[in-house]
Each structure stands twice: as C-alpha cells, then as structure tokens.
Amino acid sequence: MVRRRDIPPLNAMVLSGIVLIALLLGGCAQGGGGDAVEFTAAVNGVDVSTSEPSDPIELSGAEPAELDLTVENVTGDPVTVRYIRFEGQVLDMIFLTYDTAVRVDLEPGERRDVPTVVLDFFDLGGQASGYLRGHVQLYDEDRELLGAEQVFLDANGDALSTLGLFNLLLLLATAAGLGWNLYRLAQRRLPPNRFVRAVRFLAVGVGAGLTLSVAFSTLRIWPLGTVAWVLFAVIGGIAGYVAGFLLPGADELVDILDEQDVLDAVLDSEAPEAVTGPDGRTTIRLQD
Hints:
By secondary structure, the protein is α+β, with helices and mostly antiparallel strands. The chain has helices spanning 10-28, 124-127, 162-186, 194-218, 226-246, 250-268; strands spanning 37-43, 46-47, 57-59, 65-73, 79-90, 93-106, 111-119, 130-139, 145-155, 273-276, 282-285. It folds into two domains: 1-30 and 159-288, no CATH class; 37-155, Coagulation Factor XIII, subunit A, domain 1 (Coagulation Factor XIII, Chain A, domain 1, Distorted Sandwich). A five-stranded mixed β-sheet has the order 3-9-8-5-6. The chain has a four-stranded antiparallel β-sheet with strand order 2-1-4-7, with no helix packed on it.
C-alpha cells in the first residue's frame, strides 16, 4: 500500500511563518528621518516634491545637475547644515548615492537659500539604470540627519550597471534553483520530507518575487515601494512553499511505482492463487 506522510509538525510550520514574517519586517524597517529643518529642493529647476513614480526626474551622467535648496530651521536651537546627500534606492537598498559638503548656519526660525550645489553624476552609468525611489537628505556636522525629502528618479545609466547586474544575478539564481528542483523532480529524487521540499521551493518563489520587483525598476515600469516589493516576495514564497509541499517526494514516487508494479503483475498473471495462512490472512501467490 502507499504510505502516507504526516503533515509537518507544528514547530516546522511556525518556523516557515517566522521566515515570511522576517522578510516582511526586514523590508518594512526604515530609518527615521530628522525634523530639525524643513526645506524645498529642486533638481535642474524641477521641484523634487512634484516628482512622481510615473513622472520621475531624469538624471544623466553626460552633464552635471544643479540642486537648489531653501532651508528653514524649525527648532529653538542653532543648526548647521554640513552635508547634502542625494540617493536612489531599489528594494530599500541604495544603488545611487552622491554626497557633497556645504556649510549653512541657521539661527532658530531662520530661513535661507543655499547657493546652487552642482552634482556631477559622471559615474551614473556604472551605478544604476531605471526608475528609483530616492531622497535628498541634509546632515549636520555629526552626520545626524536633519531632514529628508523624497524624490523619484529616472537614472540613465548603463544596462550593465550595478543595478542591472543585480537584477541579472537574481534572475539567474532563481532560474537555476527552479531548474534544479524540476530536474530532481523528474529524476524522482526530491527530498522525502514535505517541509524540506516546501522550503526549497519557497526560496525559489521569493527569488522570483524579488527578481520581478527589481525588473519593475530596470524596465522603467514603476519604482515599487517597500510594501509592494515585500508583498511580491511573500506571495512568491507562499506559492513556492505550497508547490513544494504538494509535489511528491522520492519515497512517495517509489511507493506508487512499487504498488503499480504489483498490480500489473497480478493483472498479467494467468493463474493467481489465493492462499490463507495460519493467522487467517489471505495472500495472492502468482503463478509463473
């Protein structure tokens, strides 16, 4: 008879849930912003507050960009703006960053226009290409964040930039994992433990979700936010987990094949003989 495998124990199911929750919390965890200053920023005359995922600010390494700032100290203490950081992110990881040093001393309540800051994106081609979510951030002398403004960017980098290669590696790793699991399935050599099989396919599903999330940026479809890309990864992981849990393992396939062989032998036998043993059990003896 075909043996039935028990459902994974409770601790295994809890562990898999922890993995998914860790993915969610890891993606949603974001650093806090400063509130010492308020400012408006414009890149090449375009106010960053007006940028949208569907209408990002275009960046090119062919010529420098001009950043104009108006900063206001909203605290009761003097504040010194010492550094300006310009960055772009995918999957909440920084793929584009530029820092420049300034010195703007602000008394409590003072508002001042900062002289135009030139950002030279000469190595943009090697950093990123596609839609990015980013920030313009201001820091003090101790590199403490004073304030930040969100910006959406369209980086005109090279196809083989760091971001492009990252997306390619994710795709290759996911394809390799899926191909290997399918090969083991075809060879009837998947792990017999359902939980182990499920985790293997879960990893492939998460990789597929992350690959698709990055592709949304590199293909200039939409720069996904934290909730969106984590949701992609979680849905992919759940789909992979379910697929791995339901697919048969090596021992289950062998049991099915063994039972089928016995049934075929019984059906092909011309003169099967039923024999009752001392214990009252009846067995079938096949005649050659």
